[in-house]
Design a protein that fits this description.
There is one protein chain. The protein is an alpha+beta fold. It folds into two domains: 10-124, Ubiquitin-like (UB roll) (Roll), CATH 3.10.20.740; 147-211, no CATH class. 20% of the residues lie in helices and 20% in strands. It has five helices and nine strands. A five-stranded mixed sheet has the order 2-1-5-3-4, with helices on both faces. A two-stranded antiparallel sheet has the order 6-9. Residues 1-6, 177-205 and 207-212 have low confidence and may be disordered.
Length: 212
């Protein structure tokens, strides 16, 4: 019987013409990143279940790839033997550009800001940045660890999912309301108080709303 890690446990696929050998069960995104092939993505995070499998409407939709003329999310698509993947076709680029533009409506500018949005923005490009729809949420500076600005939240839910799935606290949720005709969101503890991410440790997984 083949031992674990033997050739029987690997499959071969091609990404952008590059042949790769990966463990069976590896996602296309993992296979690409292990080979230093960049596929943008914002809602994915190590050890977290892919967001499209949890809350599909909240997924960033940036990790699209094209396989046999079918467009799929690379974070949820498992690599299979003989698969041929393209990551930068014209259709993929246009769909990513639309998805990123929708995200940027919720974010007050990325110029000269150090955050995870910068890399996909540089890679995908959106031309002129879309006008920001402000949330007008108060900036909280009551933590000794960081400034918490929920106006910078892009609703990736990583902090909530880390709290639920990795730290097993289930202490946070997204709260949505209407203000001045615009939907805005904030994080609250499940007991109704605004959350303190420094106690939960989940703020480390945020893309921008918790700034050291």
């Amino acid at each position: 019987m083949p031992s674990k890690g033997s050739v029987m446990d690997t499959i071969t696929l091609t990404i952008n013409g590059q042949e790769l050998n990966v463990e069976r069960g590896t996602t296309v995104m993992e296979a690409a990143r292990n080979a230093d092939i960049y596929i943008p993505g914002l809602c994915n995070y190590p050890d977290l279940k892919p967001l499209p499998e949890v809350t599909p409407d909240m997924a960033c939709q940036l990790c699209l790839v094209e396989i046999n003329s079918i467009i799929l999310l690379s974070c949820t698509t498992k690599a299979v033997e003989g698969m041929k993947v393209e990551t930068e076709t014209p259709r993929i680029k246009e769909l990513r550009r639309r998805s990123l533009t929708n995200i940027l409506y919720r974010y007050p500018g990325v110029e000269n800001r150090i955050c995870e949005l910068q890399q996909p923005l540089n890679h995908i490009g959106v031309g002129e940045l879309p006008p920001h729809i402000p949330k007008r949420l108060p900036i909280r500076e009551d933590s000794p660890f960081f400034v918490r600005d929920h106006n910078l939240c892009i609703l990736c839910e990583r902090c909530v999912r880390v709290c639920d799935d990795l730290r097993d606290k289930s202490a946070m949720r997204l709260y949505k309301a209407q203000r001045l005709g615009n939907a805005w969101n904030n994080l609250y503890r499940r007991d109704g108080h605004k959350t303190g991410g420094e106690q939960l440790g989940s703020q480390n997984y945020c893309k921008g709303s918790g700034q050291a």
